[in-house]
Design a protein that fits this description.
Blueprint lengths: L1 H9 L9 H15 L6 H15 L3 H17 L4 H10 L5 H12 L7 H14 L3 H13 L1
């Protein structure tokens, strides 16, 4: 259900290059980066790195996906659509990796903002990731 919405919103119907799950993760990463009101080049680079690591794509593909996600995130009224697309396609045991990617973006500027924390807590809850698993994901992200 979320996949057609995401595809329609960006005019990606019939294209397989940017599946809804890839776009949903990228949009969540952008949303976390923007949560504190400051979105900079370091955060954009970290988003690209997370997309490369998670999806196994090249740097140009990651940058293109991030660009599409920036537009989608700005237009999307809520976070639930993104998490629903991920929940439908990512196994529960792999969702902690998604949370770690979100933490890596949130921590990329050297600060842990309350707005970023609240958003990640919401996303973790919507994805069925416990607070303890989210805390461990944050610790792994901080160690990198």
């Amino acid at each position: 259900m979320a996949e057609p919405f995401l595809a329609r919103l960006l005019g990606l119907q019939g294209r397989s290059e940017t599946p809804a799950q890839e776009l949903a993760l990228a949009a969540l990463l952008v949303r976390v980066a923007r949560a504190d009101g400051h979105y900079d080049e370091a955060e954009a680079r970290r988003i690209d790195q997370a997309l490369i690591a998670w999806h196994g794509m090249g740097p140009f593909e990651a940058a293109r996906l991030r660009g599409a996600a920036e537009k989608l995130e700005a237009a999307a009224p809520d976070t639930v659509r993104f998490t629903r697309a991920l929940k439908d396609g990512v196994a529960l045991e792999d969702r902690t990796g998604l949370i770690q990617a979100l933490w890596s973006v949130a921590l990329s500027d050297g600060q842990r903002g309350a707005d970023e924390e609240a958003l990640i807590r919401l996303v973790a809850s919507l994805l069925g990731v416990s607070d303890q698993d989210s805390a461990r994901a944050r610790q792994r992200a901080a160690a990198r």
